[in-house]
Design a protein that fits this description.
single chain, about 475 residues, alpha+beta, FAD/NAD(P)-binding domain, seven-stranded mixed beta sheet, six-stranded antiparallel beta sheet
């Protein structure tokens, strides 16, 4: 063990007062430049607000680029997993067409990605997922924000928020020292709900019985992958490959031989737009919390160790990987679940699985309930009824008891089960766009976000191409 452990007896110390650089003011401040933040910034700009987006890394894209979460998962309402042969993809029931349930900013982004050769448009052939190139993804997002006149600040980590008489002030840690930015409304797209929590919002973490969250995974890209040789193997061993995951016998043999030590029973691959390349989602770090610097450190050590095991296993045991190697891993381990901010409504697993509709709907989802076991092997997968989708109400984006702050992405208000569906990036972009629109209307009309009429938010979202029933 070579990483720092938390102190056995936590002790608080006082820090001296400090001054911060005042970086300006804006109507809408979006904190976090991942899918939710991209949706929020463009949604707010299109609704007529002045927008600043602040991101902790030196690039945009969030988990899509920092954690290499590839591809964008399906946002269609009739998709189920294929059950035969070497399809290595997701297919709709009866091979029918799936209907997209997310529109708006997501499709603006997808059109630009496809035009640049950076992504493959969702279709039956891709199982309605969107394989993309993470490096070109960064560039396309830069251009979208410039075209929508969103001002952007990178390398700035949000550390606190202060309430002013008629505004809210966010505090950021930077290489230039601390700085502050004032806003009429902040949209918290940090994933962890950092801003809302700092403002005093209540939140839940993990499953109710023990507080454990879904495990973390470090994704990575392997090149010199021979797809034809791998496909020939899966055709010869149809019981060993289902959709995008499998190789159970090979994993079991490597585990028994002491070559693999993973809290999961299979491997998971995703295609990319680049030939000879595959994205691997097979590491799993359990019983760690993404808001703990100690746990994050342990997760990085553990996940990189697992990655090395998996890469060696693939090269030595899996046809098609003999000449392959890891070309890139995530900048940080991917975090599936941390805080879920308690909003004016909490979406439930039952709402998701019964495809519940709401009068104040501002986004839709159809991705399955997808819970990676927080404590070990196994994944729970339950699907939304065929041809259906569930609504996400505006109330899920409005924290209880907190003014001038909205949340979007995986930290919106919901229970552990519902979260496992709405956490994926297309739905995060949809809730981001909805929060951005609501924030813009609140700022331009000088209202609190909770006082903006839902009908006005829905009207603006439809005008931006969002998918609402």
């Amino acid at each position: 063990m070579s990483y720092l452990m938390p102190p056995r007896v936590p002790r608080k110390v006082d820090l001296p007062p400090r001054q911060a650089l005042h970086a300006g003011a804006t109507q809408v401040l979006v904190v976090g430049g991942g899918p939710a933040g991209i949706g929020a910034a463009i949604g707010a700009a299109n609704a007529g607000a002045e927008v600043v987006l602040v991101e902790r890394y030196g690039f945009l894209g969030g988990n899509a680029t920092a954690a290499l979460v590839m591809p964008l998962m399906s946002f269609h309402n009739e998709v189920k997993q294929a059950v035969a042969g070497d399809t290595a993809r997701l297919l709709p029931p009866d091979h029918g067409e799936g209907e997209p349930v997310v529109g708006g900013v997501l499709w603006v982004l997808l059109d630009q990605l496809v035009r640049r050769g950076a992504a493959i448009r969702p279709s039956l052939e891709t199982g309605y997922t969107v394989p993309f190139d993470p490096e070109l993804f960064k560039l396309v997002v830069y251009e979208l924000l410039i075209n929508h006149e969103v001002r952007t600040l990178l390398h700035s980590f949000a550390s606190d928020v202060l309430s002013l008489p008629d505004r809210v002030r966010a505090v950021f840690e930077t290489k230039s020292g601390p700085l502050v930015m004032d806003a009429d409304v902040i949209v918290d797209c940090t994933g962890d709900g950092d801003i809302a929590a700092a403002a005093g919002a209540s939140y839940d973490i993990g499953r109710p019985e023990d507080g454990w969250t879904q495990p973390m995974s470090l994704m990575f890209r392997m090149v010199r992958f021979d797809h034809e040789e791998f496909a020939a193997y899966t055709r010869a061993h149809p019981d060993q490959w289902r959709g995008v995951h499998g190789l159970w016998d090979l994993v079991r043999a490597a585990t028994d031989a002491g070559e693999l030590d993973l809290p999961r029973e299979d491997v998971l691959f995703f295609a990319t737009p680049n030939s000879g390349e595959v994205a691997v989602n097979s590491t799993r770090v359990t019983e760690v919390l993404g808001t703990s610097v100690w746990d994050l450190t342990r997760a990085e050590f553990t996940a990189h160790h697992q990655m090395a095991q998996i890469a060696r296993f693939l090269r030595e045991r899996v046809p098609g990987f003999a000449d392959s190697y890891v070309v890139q891993s995530g900048v940080q381990v991917g975090v599936r679940e941390t805080r879920r901010i308690v909003g004016e409504y909490q979406l439930t697993g039952d709402d998701v699985l019964t495809a519940r509709k709401f009068e104040d709907a501002v986004a839709r989802g159809a991705y399955p309930v997808d819970i990676h076991n927080p404590s070990g092997r196994g994944t729970l997968l339950k699907r939304v009824p065929r041809g259906e989708s569930y609504d996400i109400p505006l109330r899920c984006l409005i924290p209880q008891g907190v003014d001038r702050i909205l949340v979007a992405g995986r930290c919106i208000s919901g229970d552990h089960v519902a979260h496992s569906s709405y956490r994926v990036m297309p739905i995060s972009m949809a809730t981001g766009q909805a929060a951005g629109v609501c924030a813009a209307l609140a700022a331009t009309q000088r209202r609190q976000p909770r006082d903006v009429p839902v009908s006005a938010v829905q009207r603006a979202l439809r005008a931006q191409g969002a998918s609402l029933l």
